């Protein structure tokens, strides 16, 4: 796609084909793929960056923007927590390769129980 417009319950997409432009319309919801050229990035100027630092960020509640929570929502958060802390790290001696291999084998068999 090289151009995308949406409105009135439909999407109009334009894409380049061999020597021409194809226009496709589809009802919403729709899944589309994009190619390079759809969006030209805008790079912020130093003046714009400095002005953005001074702007206040407005915090709004969902009801203020017209969102009402559905009574029978499909997903509900019950709790959010960090993953369990990892245990202590076992170091294998690196001075003697034979001892390192024996120690690694012992740890894999006895502690990790993978062998």
What's the short story on this structure?
This protein has 115 residues and is of the alpha+beta class. It is built from two helices and three strands, in the order E-E-E-H-H.
Describe this structure as you would to a colleague.
By secondary structure, the protein is α+β, with helices and mostly antiparallel strands. The chain is 21% helix and 18% strand. The chain has 2 helices and 3 strands, in the order E-E-E-H-H. The chain has a 3-stranded antiparallel beta sheet, with no helix packed on it. Strand 2 (10-17) and strand 3 form a beta hairpin. The model has no long low-confidence stretch (mean pLDDT 82).
In the predicted model, the low-confidence regions spanning at least 5 consecutive residues are none
Distance between the termini: 52 Å
The count of helical stretches stands at 2
Biggest β-sheet: strands ordered side by side in the sheet: 1-2-3
**Secondary structure category:** alpha+beta
Shape: elongated
Question: What is the percentage of strand-forming residues?
Answer: 15-25%
Order of helices and strands: EEEHH
Rg over alpha carbons: 29 Å
Number of strands: 3
Overall mean pLDDT: 82
Biggest sheet: strands, sense, closure?
Answer: 3 strands, antiparallel
Percent helix among the residues? 10-25%
């Amino acid at each position: 796609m090289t151009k995308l417009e949406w409105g009135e319950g439909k999407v109009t997409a334009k894409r380049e084909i061999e020597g021409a432009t194809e226009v496709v319309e589809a009802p919403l919801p729709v899944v589309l793929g994009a190619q390079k050229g759809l969006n030209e990035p805008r790079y912020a100027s130093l003046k714009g960056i400095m002005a953005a630092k001074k702007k206040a960020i407005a915090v709004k509640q969902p009801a203020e923007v017209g969102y009402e929570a559905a009574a029978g929502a499909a997903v509900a958060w019950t709790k959010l927590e960090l993953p369990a802390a990892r245990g202590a790290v076992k170091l294998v001696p690196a001075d003697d390769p034979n001892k390192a291999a024996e120690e690694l084998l012992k740890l894999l068999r006895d502690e990790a129980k993978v062998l």
